[in-house]
């Protein structure tokens, strides 16, 4: 992990540790031959993930989790999954990944427990509506509604109105969109920090997205194209700031940590967004993990431990 100036050696094969290379080979094996979600249907694939079928292990559910129900801007009901420490120092609004199509707020409880226990933040994970049943702007609208609810209710609900935000993959995208919407629609710039983990910031496709190809290392170029088409079925202008936050005015935003592995098709998204965040005069940190594949934080491995510790350190620092 590093900050600018970047060391070119981070991106070479020699920098990839043996255990990381072994994990990547195993991931390719696990992904090869799996049915494509767009062929078998999104709901069937979601159910397979819930059952632990495929590359992801069955999710362990936290006995500490509770649910808060709020009303979204469309009048829909939104579930907020809460895992809180004994003493709350603030709130972490978490947005899960899964390409806006897969994933759920209850599929990463152990990670959210660790964040809560190691930072003192009550973790609030949003169960936003998924594509293709609910394409853009449903998911972003639900995340906006969750943020607006927390701004009004966090102090009464958790004893603190100190807010942070973050997410992985599509969750990183939705976290960035939420920060921008809160600034532009609510004049709220109070987030203390943003934790972006291999986020998607350009849906017109960065060079690393287009060049990654079809090696089944979790996220291929084809996968991204299918996710984008499901989320944005009628939208051809994909550089609009509410869709691709890389193209937004980024002035006046909170400190951010950008994390990514070098074997991730979304590498450029993180590198570009980190640079633009800094160029807009916002504080930003960059953590680059040699050989890390997309989703590497979701599997037991050394890089995941390092990334988790770095994210937790960042969140503790910005809360103060």
- Which strand order spans the largest sheet, edge to edge or round the barrel? 1-2-4-3-5-6-7-8
- Name the structural class: alpha/beta
| Nearest-integer average pLDDT | 96
Report the CATH C-level class: Alpha Beta
Major pleated sheet: 8 strands, mixed
Q: Any descriptors?
A:
single chain, 320 residues, alpha/beta, Rossmann fold, 8-stranded mixed β-sheet, 10 helices, 17% strand
Describe the fold and architecture.
The chain has ten helices and eight strands. By secondary structure, it is α/β, with parallel strands linked by helices. The chain has a single domain, classed as 3-Layer(aba) Sandwich (Rossmann fold). An eight-stranded mixed sheet has the order 1-2-4-3-5-6-7-8, with helices on both faces. Helix 5 (138-158) crosses helix 6 (170-186). It starts with 17 loop residues before the first helix and ends with a helix. The mean pLDDT is 96.
Break the fold down into its secondary structure elements and pairings.
Layout: H1 18-31, H2 37-40, H3 42-50, E1 66-71, E2 77-83, E3 90-95, H4 109-119, E4 121-127, H5 138-158, E5 163-168, H6 170-186, E6 194-197, H7 207-211, H8 221-231, E7 256-263, H9 267-279, E8 284-293, H10 302-319
Parallel strand pairs: 3-4, 3-5, 5-6, 6-7, 7-8
Antiparallel strand pairs: 1-2, 2-4
């Amino acid at each position: 992990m590093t900050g600018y100036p970047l060391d070119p050696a981070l991106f070479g094969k020699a920098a990839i540790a043996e255990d990381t290379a072994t994990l990547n080979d195993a991931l390719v094996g696990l992904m090869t031959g799996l049915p494509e979600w767009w062929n078998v249907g999104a709901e069937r694939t979601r159910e397979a993930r819930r059952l632990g079928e495929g590359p992801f292990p069955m999710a362990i559910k936290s006995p500490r989790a509770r649910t808060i129900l709020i009303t979204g801007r469309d009048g829909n009901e939104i579930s907020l999954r809460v895992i809180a420490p004994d003493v709350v120092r603030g709130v972490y609004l978490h947005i899960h990944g899964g390409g806006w199509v897969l994933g759920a707020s209850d599929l990463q409880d152990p990670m959210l427990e660790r964040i809560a226990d190691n930072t003192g933040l009550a973790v609030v994970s949003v169960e936003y509506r998924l594509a293709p049943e609910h394409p853009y702007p449903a998911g972003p609208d639900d995340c906006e509604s969750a943020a607006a609810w927390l701004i009004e209710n966090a102090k009464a609900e958790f004893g603190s109105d100190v807010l942070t935000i973050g997410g992985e993959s599509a969750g990183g995208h939705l976290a960035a969109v939420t920060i921008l919407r809160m600034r532009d629609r609510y004049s709220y710039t109070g987030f203390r920090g943003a934790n972006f983990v291999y986020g998607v910031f350009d849906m017109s496709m960065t060079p690393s997205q287009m060049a990654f190809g079809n090696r089944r290392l979790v996220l291929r170029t084809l996968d991204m194209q299918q996710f984008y088409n499901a989320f944005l079925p009628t939208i051809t202008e994909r550089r609009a700031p509410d869709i691709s936050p890389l193209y937004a005015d980024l002035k006046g935003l909170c400190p951010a940590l950008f994390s990514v592995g070098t074997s991730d098709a979304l590498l450029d998204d993180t590198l570009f967004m980190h640079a633009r965040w800094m160029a807009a005069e916002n504080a930003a940190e960059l953590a680059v993990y040699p050989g890390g594949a997309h989703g590497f934080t979701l599997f037991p491995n050394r890089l995941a431990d390092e990334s988790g510790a770095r994210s937790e350190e960042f969140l503790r620092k910005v809360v103060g």
